[in-house]
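Re: beginner question about structure tokens

> Can someone show what the tokenized structure looks like for a real chain? I only ever see the sequence side.

Sure, here's an example I had lying around. Input first:
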Amino acid sequence: MPLQTPPLRGIHDERGAKFTEFGGWDMPVEFDSIRTEHAAVREDVGVFDVSHMGQIHVTGPDATELMQRLTSNDVSRLAVGDSQYAAITDEDGIIIDDTVVYRLPDESHPTYLFVPNAGTDEATHERWLSYRNEWDLEATVDNRTDEYAMFAVQGPNAADLLGAVAEGPITDLDRFEAQYATIEDVDCWTARTGYTGEDGFELIVPWAAAEEIWTAIDCQPCGLGARDTLRIEAGLLLAGQDFDPESNPRTPYEAGIGFTVALDTEFVGRDALAAIEDGGVEERLVGFQLIDRGVPRHGYDITTTESRVIGTVTSGTMSPTLEKPIGLGYVPVEYAEPGTTLQVVVRGQSKKARVETTPFIDTVQ
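And the corresponding structure tokens:
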């Protein structure tokens, strides 16, 4: 099956980007270097093309009820222009996906846009339709992934940059607030959200206007490589690695996102998660730093100091900001306390590691 391509695939190629397959998409992984792009976001501002992320639009008399039943957070608390981070769980409380839900201006009825991870939009769309029909709810559910591009402008100077090119008081937005802003005479849904630990914005723009919006945002282009190192430093989850319903089934409590679970609402997986909260969990996702030389990578074993395997690295990198090897992985709760000494097996050799509090850096999130 051919890879899907973002609207700016040719533009990125002309800029000299290197590409990788991610979630069924052919995406830029690096423009200049991961270190250069990472530093731009931490110290100044950078822009990512994240058009591989899905966009599902939901509206209708029962739109709020449908969203409430299928995401773990309390959608009823969202006013127009608000957004929230949430999990999508199955009946056993296992994370299928994580998402951001936006409350759009009403279209005669409550209207929402939510962003599933790359490659999951079709399955998520079908899931929403199936449950809508099963529950006999009146709501329209549209997969608009191929109608919109999505850009992330991130870094301490992101507000200054966008404030200079956008019409509208977007710099007044608080975290997780959003509104339409005009850039190059194009209405862009602009949210003060991101995936880097820095201040910044995510823009959802019409596919046909992607090039002119990208050109107007004149700063360091960044690829998925820097996006990964930035999000690991911020202790943020990556679907398919830090959780996966098949290869690494985890609940929000294990994954450290229990704050997304509103047990006073009714949603798929709610009862299972209520039982887990009462009984606690046996394993938790922790951050760690290697004390010995080496770089932790996805799939490496985590062991006790006696070399007994107790977990697996889910994400790992050499932190460009800290210049230290860091990672994430699940371990039994008795080994999850910050300061606990562990080992990570790197290319067959045991390396001393220490459990650290995440995020590894100061963030705005």
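Each token stands for a local structural state, so reading them left to right follows the chain. The chain has eight helices and 20 strands.
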